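User: I've been trying to design a sequence by hand for this structure and keep getting stuck. Would you show me what you'd pick, starting by listing the structure so we're on the same page?

Assistant: Good idea, let's start from the same input. This is the structure you sent:
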């Protein structure tokens, strides 16, 4: 199969919408990362998504739903329940209120919520769990396809399982060339890091299952309470969100992390071909001052002036550039703090590292 990169013309948006409706799968841009999209109600599409990504069947998919500007959060929930996608029986008023507040604040956008699943969602999608992950993406092309296809769309990130998530159409091509018919080109993903996953249980207890594009602090601000992060145990291979395994987002070459350039100096071996990801320009300058002899195969800077949103946007593309360089060994600098987006970036780096 030849994989085509399609420009986002009206004809192509219509064509891919029809294809998804009829059971094909293909890659669509979202504001976070590219997704491998298929019709929720087409079992073969769902099987193809798992097979194409080489994704283990224990790792459930996120369901993407259309934005309707006419509906408020309560109406969005009723509509999802009406369609039998979620089941709100047993939700306490506290759980309902918190869910509505988060939807009001962050949908459409990069927040994924976990709900008790409705009968319309197959066990294949949820890997047998009795919950389903739902998100309403903001990307105009993804929204257009949801509207034109009139389908809910399942979409994991459009990379082979365990590999670096794609934030450009050519990344998807590198990952899945010959395995899917088309990639709808949306340019660079604006955010560059996946959605934040939040679980609110029936009684209203809130847990962060995956840090992501929406900062934990912003969620806490809306809920007016601290949120427990259940993903903090990075060494666990039995996380609450089955896909947040310890080894993920991984380059092909060994990757080691460092926090400060002085820490890097103690590890750095100038006899090996090395590529380094620095957090900001200052860090590169400090390192080259101390190691004038260093002969780097490649380096990348996440953000010139230390802006976390810029770092998030560049993260996966920079890791790819390092991986595709001639280096034998890769180093990446963690963010200076663990706050806001830096928490999510550090989470991805830790999972990418050896
Ligand atoms: O930003 C995103 O969320 C992107 C774009 C394409 O929407 N999608 C994405 O999908 O990151 P994926 O498949 O790469 O990651 C989905 C994560 C996995 O870690 C999976 O375990 C978790 O969501 N997940 C799905 N259903 C779940 C559930 N019912 N309970 C807990 N975690 C769930
Ligand atoms: Mg993924």
């Amino acid at each position: 199969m030849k994989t085509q990169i399609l420009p986002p013309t009206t004809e192509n948006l219509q064509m891919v919408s029809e294809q998804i409706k009829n059971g094909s799968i293909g890659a669509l841009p979202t504001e976070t990362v590219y997704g491998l999209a298929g019709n929720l109600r087409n079992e073969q599409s769902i099987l193809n998504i798992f097979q194409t990504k080489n994704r283990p069947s224990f790792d459930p998919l996120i369901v993407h739903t259309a934005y309707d500007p006419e509906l408020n959060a309560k109406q969005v929930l009723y509509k999802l329940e009406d369609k039998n996608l979620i089941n709100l029986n047993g939700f306490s008023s506290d759980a309902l209120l918190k869910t509505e507040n988060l939807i009001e604040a962050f949908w459409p956008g990069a927040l994924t919520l976990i709900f008790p699943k409705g009968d319309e969602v197959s066990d294949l999608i949820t890997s047998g769990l009795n919950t389903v992950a739902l998100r309403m993406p903001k990307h105009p092309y993804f929204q257009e396809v949801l509207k034109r296809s009139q389908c809910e769309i399942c979409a994991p990130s459009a990379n082979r399982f365990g590999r670096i998530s794609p934030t450009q159409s050519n990344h998807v091509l590198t990952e899945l060339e010959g395995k899917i018919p088309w990639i709808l080109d949306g340019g660079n993903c604006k955010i560059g890091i996946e959605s934040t996953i939040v679980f609110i249980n029936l009684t209203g207890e809130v847990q962060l299952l995956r840090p992501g594009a929406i900062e934990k602090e912003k969620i806490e601000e809306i809920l007016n309470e601290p949120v427990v992060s259940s993903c903090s145990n990075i060494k666990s291979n039995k996380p609450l969100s089955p896909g947040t395994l310890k080894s993920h987002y991984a380059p092909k070459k060994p990757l080691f992390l460092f926090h400060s350039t002085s820490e890097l100096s103690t590890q750095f071996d100038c006899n090996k071909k090395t590529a380094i990801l620095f957090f900001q320009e200052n860090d590169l300058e400090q390192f080259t001052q101390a190691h004038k002899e260093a002969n780097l195969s490649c380096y990348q800077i996440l953000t010139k002036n230390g802006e976390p949103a810029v770092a998030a946007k560049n993260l996966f593309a920079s890791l790819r550039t390092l991986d595709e360089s001639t280096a034998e060994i890769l180093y990446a600098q963690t963010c200076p703090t663990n706050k806001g987006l830096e928490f999510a970036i550090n989470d991805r780096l830790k999972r990418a590292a050896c």
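That's my pick for every position. To get oriented when you compare it with your attempt: Residues 232-237 have pLDDT under 50 and may be disordered. Residues 308-324 form the longest helix (17 residues).
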